[in-house]
Amino acid sequence: MAEFKHKHIIALRDLSKEDIELLLSTAESMREINSREIKKVPTLRGKTIINLFYESSTRTRTSFEIAGKRLSADTVNIASSSSSATKGETLSDTALNLLAMKPDIIVMRHAVSGAHYFLAGKVNCSIINAGDGAHEHPSQGLLDMLTMKDRYGRLDGLKVAIVGDITHSRVARSNIQGLTKLGSSVFLAGPPTMIPPEAEKLGNVTVCSSMNEALEDADVVMMLRIQQERQGKTLMPNAREYSRYFGLNPNNIKLAKPNAMVMHPGPINRGVEMSSSMVDGNQSWVLKQVENGVAVRMAMIYHVCGDELAPGTI
Ligand code: CP
């Protein structure tokens, strides 16, 4: 097996094509564990993982916890709303105090882009990014790529349309980094107020002037949530207007390839970025994305601990 040399996983920008392929291949192996009646292996017995979430989460936090438990690590969850962060404790002090309890991995979600690089400079355990501001969400990018690979058997040569609030989307940034390294072509569309001026510099992407242009002959259509919590000011007239120009529905999906994949990282605003018929329809891969999230996070946890593990212990 190829070696994973990174102590932290903070951004897909930091990983090579080979690193990403290794994580996806390990995630495929982890899926076998998740299909067993007893979904637990002793691989990470004795390891401690702290899930430190400064922002809300349903999918990411739960699946990191399940991933750790399935590998027999001890997992502890901290939500900032019930931590001493509410009393004014800084991230640095929180991290140093948690470190005194000798965790092996801190999985963190934080509203500040780059917070994980700051943390990695302060601690001697591994840091995994569960989403930082509008920067990256590497586990989401990996699970999205695994899901596309499930459908097509490859990522090379796929046309992936990413539609919505690109400016504030860490999901878009991780997908752009990962997908373009593995040979997919990424097309972005959204209201001009939600496309960053430097969009072409995000990676090898094409910025489209309309949603229809992005959808045309796409293999994958990835819809994004409007990140109102990061926008600061209103960037669209109203939800109905947004949906009219940038919502996915049974008519405009016909522009994509027949049976193209419909994806969304969640949480979904039904009727805004996608109609319910698209969310629940037979082209939707939304719940498969969530399922793959557990295997991907098991692979991430496994590889940042990798050097200390006996080969073949998965
Ligand atoms: N996709 C995603 O990050 O979902 P959560 O915010 O629920 O973790």
Can you give a write-up of this model?
The protein is an alpha/beta fold. The chain has 2 domains: 143 residues, Rossmann fold, CATH 3.40.50; 152 residues, Rossmann fold, CATH 3.40.50.1370. 36% of the residues lie in helices and 14% in strands. It has 11 helices and 9 strands. It has a 5-stranded parallel beta sheet. A 4-stranded parallel beta sheet has the order 2-1-3-4. Helix 6 links the parallel strand 5 and strand 6. Helix 1 packs across helix 5, helix 1 packs across helix 11 and helix 5 packs across helix 11. It is globular. The model has no long low-confidence stretch (mean pLDDT 93). Bound molecules: phosphoric acid mono(formamide)ester (CP). Phosphoric acid mono(formamide)ester (CP) binds next to helix 2. The site of phosphoric acid mono(formamide)ester has 9 residues, from helix 2.
**Main beta sheet, described?**
5 strands, parallel
Query: Overall 3D geometry?
Result: globular
DSSP strand (E) fraction?
A: 5-15%
Number of helices: 11
User: What is bound: which ligands?
Assistant: phosphoric acid mono(formamide)ester
Topology as a string of helices (H) and strands (E): HEHEHEHEHEHEEHEHHEHH
Say which CATH homologous superfamily of the largest domain is assigned. Answer: Aspartate/ornithine carbamoyltransferase
The number of domains is: 2
N→C terminal distance: 13 Å
Q: What's the CATH architecture name of the largest domain?
A: 3-Layer(aba) Sandwich
CATH topology of the largest domain: Rossmann fold
Helix content: 25-40%
The level-1 CATH class of the largest domain: Alpha Beta
